[in-house]
């Protein structure tokens, strides 16, 4: 890596999930028990996403969710109350599988070097 692009320093944390069946959206944000530093990095990464959406310049990388045994199941878009929202199309089998998962939770990964959100992985509690 070059000096202007540091090596990633991933930090994983638990997240909570909220499902909105009307819009087929799954919202994610750090769990109350997540380390404070992970929450700060999440907020900074989310803020960078918001600023990039209002700019014509290249912004932070797209945040993709993983789950149901698949990579890149949905893109994250900043939502209300510190969340990233992952919207799924009508009839999407991945969405059906995720929302039918008992105790659906997520793990977030943020980069300590750049304050970006790297990925969100949906999983069953346990």
In order across it, which strands form the biggest sheet?
A: 1-2-5-4-3-7-6
Mean pLDDT: 91
Q: What number of structural domains do the residues give? A: 1
The count of helical stretches stands at 2
Q: Could you estimate the helical fraction of the residues in percent?
A: 10-25%
Alpha carbon gyration radius: 14 Å
Principal-axes shape call: globular
Residue share in β-strands: 35-45%
Largest sheet: 7 strands, mixed, barrel
Poorly predicted ranges = none
Order of helices and strands: EEHEEEHEE
Structural class comes to alpha+beta
Q: How far apart are the first and last residues' alpha carbons, in Å? A: 37 Å
Number of strands: 7
What does the model show?
The chain is an alpha+beta fold and 126 residues long. It has one domain. Helix content is 20%, strand content 40%. It contains two helices and seven strands, in the order ββαβββαββ. Strands 1-2-5-4-3-7-6 form a seven-stranded mixed beta barrel. A hairpin with a 4-residue loop joins β1 and β2. The N and C termini lie far apart (37 Å). The relative contact order is 0.27. The model has no long low-confidence stretch (mean pLDDT 91).
């Amino acid at each position: 890596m070059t000096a202007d692009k540091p090596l990633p320093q991933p930090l994983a944390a638990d997240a909570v999930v909220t499902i909105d069946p009307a819009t087929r959206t799954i919202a994610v944000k750090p769990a109350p028990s997540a380390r404070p530093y992970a929450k700060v990095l999440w907020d900074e990464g989310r803020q960078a996403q918001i600023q990039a959406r209002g700019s014509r310049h290249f912004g932070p990388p797209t945040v993709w969710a993983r789950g149901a045994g698949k990579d890149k199941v949905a893109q994250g878009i900043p939502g209300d109350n510190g969340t990233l929202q992952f919207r799924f199309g009508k009839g999407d089998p991945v969405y059906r599988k995720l929302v039918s998962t008992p105790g659906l939770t997520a793990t977030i990964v943020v980069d300590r070097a750049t304050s970006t959100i790297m990925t969100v992985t949906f999983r069953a509690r346990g």
